[in-house]
Amino acid sequence: MALMRSILLAASQNTWLRENAVNYPFVRRSVSRFMPGESLDAAMEAARGLEQKKIASVFTNLGENVKDRAEASQVTEHYLEVLRRIRESGLNAEVSVKLTQLGLDLSPDFCFENLDRIIAQEKKNAIAWVDMEASPYVDATLDLYKRALAKYPNTGICLQAYLYRAQKDVEELLPQRPSIRLVKGAYKEPPEVAYPKKQDVDENYFTLASTMMAAQAAGRCRRAAYGTHDVKLIRRLTEHAAQSGFPRSNFEVQMLYGIQREEQERLAREGYRSGVLVAYGTYWYPWFVRRLAERPANLWFMARNLFAS
Fold first, then answer.
1. Does the predicted model carry a pTM greater than 0.85?
2. Residues taking part in catalysis
3. pLDDT tens digits for 229-271?
4. In DSSP terms, which residues pair with 253 in a beta bridge?
5. Which of 143, 85, 74 is CA-nearest to residue 112?
6. Helical H runs in the chain?
7. I need a labelling partner for 31 at 20 to 30 A (CA). Which of 115, 218, 247, 299 fits?
8. Low-confidence residues in the chain, pLDDT < 70
């Protein structure tokens, strides 16, 4: 599985595959499991269905490493339109943005201007999430996040448990009362940067999550969300929460659209906060392959689509 994950992560960065694989019908059928469609309309329709099950949504328009200022500005305008439509519809939904899609590779200040415009339009009782990307971007992302958090308390950041530095990053953020979404991590990272073994990632995740939970209970973390599809880990965390007297209504799990749907609904039924990241857009290939790498068993699902009529 480790070898397959490495192969898939390498494939996610392959330019030829990105440009050509999207044209194969069986690939497009496979990706439909993880995203409702390429348009914002499709994402909002999915969110309405989730809300009927008391599940919140987080919209993300797929894309990364934008190298053109005009394109980064267009992405910003798109997110402003998303926030407008969320307000008009009354949906329980938020947004999550990648900073390289807002122009981080061009200029941190230009990127922050775009990020600032988006956060300024988010509802004060909701979180505007900043996604995390590969390890070379962590410092720049955290610098801009801290800058945004000082101005907008309702700004959240994604941290990756497979990075050795994650514990230090959590501890440095807590004095600013952040909102944190904790994930395991989905990029190809060298062993000197990230834990190579799943069991080590899982243990670090549990340690970080416990720290975040205690900080939230103490008022040092505005909101903590646990981004994982690992049901065993979720059960371990909910047991820890119960033993700590942590209320279910404050315990939040965020998953991806189409994955562990029964678990998403179970959490919502039992009084936990259940949320789903609803991805959409045309730039889905690298994101999709990273999803396969998180659970290579999904390749069998893709293989079935290859032979489907």
1. yes
2. 131, 181
3. 999 999 999 999 999 999 999 999 999 998 899 999 999 999 9
4. 226, 274
5. 143
6. 2-12, 15-20, 25-31, 40-51, 69-89, 108-121, 138-151, 166-173, 198-217, 231-244, 261-269, 285-294, 298-306
7. 115
8. 1-14, 16-30, 291, 293-309
